[in-house]
Model the fold of this input.
Amino acid sequence: MAHDPQAGPEPGGSHGPVDVLDTEEAGGRIIRGGALRTLAFVSGTLASLVAAALLFRHLGVDDTGRYATVLSLIAIAGGMSDAGVMALGLREYSTLEGAARDAVMRNLLGMRLAFTAAGVVAATVFAVIVGYGPTMVAGTALAGFGFLLYMVQQFLSVPLSVGLRLGWVAALQFLTQFLAAVVFSLLVFAGAGLLPFLAVQIPVMLILIAITAHLVRGEMPLRPAFVLRQWRSMFRDVLVFAVILALGVLYFRVITVLLSLLSTDRETGYYGAAFRVIEVLAAVPSLLAGSAFPLLSRAARDDRNRLGYALDRLTRGMMLVGIWMAICVVLGAPVAIDVVAGPAFFPSIELLQYLGVALAATFVLITWSLGLLAAREHKAMLIANSVALVVAVGGGALLISIDGARGGAIALVVAEFTLASGYGIAIARHPELTPLDPRHVARVALAAAAALAVPWALDLPAVADVLLGTAVYAVMLVVLRAIPEEIAEAFTSRVRHRGAAG
Done:
């Protein structure tokens, strides 16, 4: 009888949950788990929005720019020092077993600690060199330590993701956002300055690490290993992952840093408010598609036909959601900025609308990146990310010097679609991966055009625009038969299963 991964590990064994990846039930669990993680994320985001509204009003435009700059700097340093350890850990935990897996995971945890600590030190030194000031320098160190704790917690949760115990993953995710929102709100009411807000992650992640360690006891080694001989044997894969992910993080965040260096605090603050909204929403595709990475890795090892089919269906579904979110951001930007940042950030509305367009590409490129990683198409990913970084840095520097924050927003949109195009070319050239069907893309594009045109023609308030646009988009998708049948099947089969069990 198959073991239920939601119930935890089987008695007497530590690797039972992984077996669900080889069953036909895996696809449905991933779709439902992705939906559950998204629901948890949305719930946590509502709490975060309340905290963000308090935070931005409390800090003002200039300090918001400083806050956004420090977080972007830490995200860049953290992404570059991540060395692909999380993705590599998911892939190796999905494909190895027993003592060999435990040894790899301990050493990867050691790498994560060492590399992230080095990245935090580098970010702090950079803040000193460019003259960010004592508060921002200290804030960079504190935010970096909080990021290190976050990285550890995420790595410890690998068995939950691979075992498709996505209910626990969703709960931890919600708790992370909710606790951070509570601490942010308390600091606002206490009248705190900029520095404490940059240290919020530290107490929150200490709590989450304790909970996660309890959930994965017996499945995940909790002690890191620093065996340099074994590090060298893994270094080739780690280095490739490191460069790919570092480039991916850098091109997405570099615009904020360029603005802090080439423009004013006010322009950086306007961009920071808009980018904060996009930064939150950009986590959704990783939640939805990331749950499928263990399955894609197992399929790449055992069944390449299954890999191609799974990636194609996942991409279609992710494209539908990504375009819907882009529609919502473009139509709802006025109310989003009003709620999150307030009237002082009115120029951020146009910036958010530009950045919202990029979400459509973000959902697709994140999905393709998982398929390419599973298929070990590292060279193609390196090329695509390098080109995107050149576009972001070169285009960003030029456009920011011409048009400030608006130029930076446009540069990020161009870089995002550049990366998506590069991944699409790599998918199309791979013999076992399936590129998007142009007919499907055309149907979804037609639905999106109608969803934008109808609200704009009626000139309604922003909230009404979002609701109407969503309704038009959904109806058009149904009429054009653009919704993959696997999505509906994943939920209807669950309902039938429960009915039969009753």
Summary: Residues 149 and 206 are 7 Å apart (CA to CA). The radius of gyration is 22 Å. Residues 25-82 form the longest helix (58 residues). The chain is about 85% helix and 0% strand.
